[in-house]
# Entry
Amino acid sequence: MGDYTIQISTKLIDQLARDDEKVKRKARKPKPKKKTPVQRHEEPQDNAAKEFPSEPKTSSPAPAPGWPLQPPPMYLPVTPAPPPPPPAAAVPEVEAIRAVLKESEMVLEKLEKQEAGARQELSKRAKELHDKEFKLPYQNPMPCDQERSGCVECYKSNAKDPLKCAEAVKRFEACARMAMKNANAKAS
# Structure
């Protein structure tokens, strides 16, 4: 990794040092631009006492007119990254814990497989038992089903003139009487 530096202005350091005072930002109103000639005045050579001793001396050109004068940036060194942790194989307790964890995971997988097999077997047996217990008894087919459906179809197709279905109704009636006689004969 390369060396990096962080640039922090003295204004920010002053603000951080005065943490009891809250810095409020004021809305800046645009100032009307005035065209005035730039006047450069020379400062006396005694400006070394005014500079901060912790800041490096730099010679920078004069700022453009209208911009505030800012102090030069301060450079702070970056601390190196901490050393990596020792390899996992170096700690025997960690290896013992990992071995127990791996064994536990294997037991868990085995139990999950047993549970899945038991669940399938239980479902199969429950279905078989349900089928045996709730089996519907044999139901005789309804007699005269064909004649009945013929009668219904005739009424649907001749809804305006139901007298045309007299023949279908007679066949259904004859079949129903026959079925009733047979049922009575079996019951006796």
Q: What stands out?
A: The first helix runs from residue 10 to 17.
